[in-house]
Each structure stands twice: as structure tokens, then as C-alpha cells.
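Re: that chain you flagged

S.,

Sorry for the slow reply, it's been a week of failed gels. I finally had a moment to sit down with the sequence you sent. For the record, here it is as I used it:
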Amino acid sequence: MQTAIPATAPARAMQWRSLEFILGALLTGAMLTLVLLSVWIFPDRGSLMDLAARLTQPFTAWAHPLGTDPLGRDVLARVLVGGRISLMVGFLSVLGASVLGITVGLIAGYYRGFWDMLLMRCVDVQLALPFILVALTFISILGGGLGNIILFMIVSQWVQYARLVRGMVLSVREREFVQAARAFGVRDFAMIHHHILPNIIGPVIILMTLNVANNILLESSLTFLGLGVDPLIPSWGGMLADGRTYMQTAWWVSVFPGVAIMLTVLGLNLLGDWLRDRIDPTGKL
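Prediction finished late last night. Pasting the C-alpha cells below so you have them in one place:
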């Protein structure tokens, strides 16, 4: 009679990493697919009002499977249409902040000296400013709106990428292959593009994945407080704000967009953790 051999710690870790990737990919892929398909499935139902069907309970009508809000708008359509706004804010803000931060970090870490001191002092000054104070000042001057929210996230988050990239560049630029390329007369742009950037991009991708989830939460929080996207534009944060006064009588108005936020952020975080383990299995990063 054979006895079962218990799984070792590395085997259990590998199983969890595979499960982590599968769950993260399923959640993120399903949400992205539904949100993108909503352009054709619900072209205008996100803002279409039907006062005769206001506050319809979920799972009681085929026309409104997740119910309706106080103005008779379909909750399912608004969740999917609002997901386009929230996901667009998350991805575009991370893309802009990463491009700016990577550029600053590469210049500071590679050239050092004056540029390093100047750029890193700018980073230190921004990190010293309270986030809430910066958000309130920025939005009070420029106002809310989709474009200003994305711009605010870019301005407030590029420093994370700049510090990360600068630290890695300082280490990579002293490696033997970089010294050899410099001895062969490789120009600075080619050195950064072909030898340094490919060796530091892994941790940056991990940070980008995690920041997409954080920015979705941030956009929802700012919109919930009335500082984000225009209330006329469906978004997950706006739906939470609209339904907070109906929690006892119409819980579905806030619960379903909240569940959408939770599942999307969970999927992105699982993918980020999986990427971190794949790129740096020893946990040094």
C-alpha cells in the first residue's frame, strides 16, 4: 500500500503561483471583455432613464437583471459603461506616470552629478507634500473632470517610478557588460535603450500592474467625494456616491459597482503578485 507523499514547500508555492495567475487572468480578462463589449451591448442604456421602472429590485425583471437606480437607469449597463471610464483612468494614468518617471530615473541614474541632484531634489520635495493637500489644491485650481483626474495621477505618481528606476540604474551601470559596451564606444542613447532599460524593466512592470489597481480605487474615491469624474458620466465611484443614500432601501445601486471594483482590483493585484514572483522568485525586490 502506497502512502501519499506530502507536497514540499516549493511545490506548494508553485501551485499557488499557478492558481494566482489563473484567478488573476480570469478576473481581469472577464472584466476587460465585458467592459469592452458593453460598447456594442449597451451603447446608450447607461444614461437611458425609465422612471416607471425606478428602483427595480435585482433578479426580478429580465430587462434589468441587476435592478435599476433611483432614476430608472439599468444598473448592469451603468456598471459596464462606468468600467470603461475607471479602467481608462487606471491604465492611462499609469502609462503617463511610468513614461515620465522612467525618463527622469534613467537620466538621474545614468548621468548622475548635477542632473541626479536636481531631479532627485524635485522628487524629494513632491514626496514631502501631503497627498490630500496636493489633491485638493490641484483639483480646486484646475477643476474636476476626466482629463484633470488623469493628469493629477500622473503628476502625483511619477516619483515612484523615478526613484525605483534611478536606484536600479545606479546598480546596472556598474556591471561588466555596460563597462564593456562603453569601452567599445556605444553612445549614451544606445547604451540606455539596449543595455540598461531591458535589465530594469521587470520591477517597473510589476509596479505598473499594482498601480493600475490603486488608481482605479483612487478614481473611485475621488469621484465618490465629488472631486473626480463629472457626475453625468457613469463611473464606479459616481455610482457608489449616487447609491449611498439608498443603502437601506436599494442596496444594489452601490453594492454591484462596489463588487466590480473589488473583483477588478483583486484580479490586477493577483497578476501583479504573480509577475513579481516570476521576475524575482527570491524576493529581493
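What I noticed first: The mean pLDDT is 82.

Talk soon,
D.
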